[in-house]
Amino acid sequence: MTTEDPDAAARRLAAVSLAADDPTGWFERLYAAAADGAAVVPWDRGAPHPLLVEWAGPRDLGGSALVVGFGPGFDAEFLAAHGAATTAFDVSPSAVAAARERFPGSSVDYRTADLLAPPPEWRHAFDLVVEIMTVQSMPPAFHPPATASVAGFVAPGGTLLVIATASPDAGGGGFEGPPWPLTRAEVDAFAQDGLDAVSVEKLASVPPWHRWRAEFRRGGVAP
Ligand SMILES: C[S@@+](CC[C@H](N)C(=O)[O-])C[C@H]1O[C@@H](n2cnc3c(N)ncnc32)[C@H](O)[C@@H]1O
């Protein structure tokens, strides 16, 4: 097992990918190293995100759900346990393999896919879409296409939940990522392609960080 700080190790891997104009290649290298015990996934909380748990409450969610960039998989398992027929995707095949191994017998459909080129059949297909800290894990130039993809997954009558890091002044500029925290304007940009904002909250987190939690809804009724 490595003794390097997990965040520093992840940034070191990211720097190599980003220098080669590859915004996501480092995720596979990180998850593959973690599977070999040579790295730690810094965002592996061992539990669903507390802001997702609080938002969902005890209700039965039902319907279909899509988890974007699922990472360790706890958010997807949480949605499935609350009655949603859940699909979850990540750009890293090793993340998919790790989740299948970690949750044997899970009802979650874990898939390898790229948010920047998602399967066309996912367009307007999910009653609930959950995006937690994936858009911000790519450099800002990729935020607009990634945001458009996320918004496009929501079915008529469906809901999008976004949880992301905000810089203390919500300005975002000058921060050397990863991650690249979302500005207020970037959060507001999820309201596109027929989605309307229901709520945008800026919540205190570990100082000096804040988190966005934002909910969007597409009008209409699921077919
Ligand atoms: C910072 S982690 C967050 C993981 C998880 N959502 C969470 O909150 O714990 C970002 C995740 O998104 C995945 N990811 C990054 N870019 C992606 C892309 N273009 N398409 C799909 N997944 C991506 C990474 O592999 C990683 O698992």
Automatic annotation (TrEMBL):
Domain Methyltransferase intervals: 66-158
Family annotation (Pfam families): Methyltransf_25 (PF13649)
Stored CDD domains: AdoMet_MTases
InterPro entries membership: Methyltransf_25, SAM-dependent_MTases_sf
UniProt-listed GO biological process terms: methylation
Parts forming coiled coils: none
The keyword DNA repair is assigned to this record: no
GO molecular function, one term: methyltransferase activity
Keywords on record: Methyltransferase, S-adenosyl-L-methionine, Transferase
Name under which the protein is recorded: Class I SAM-dependent methyltransferase
Organism field: Jiangella aurantiaca
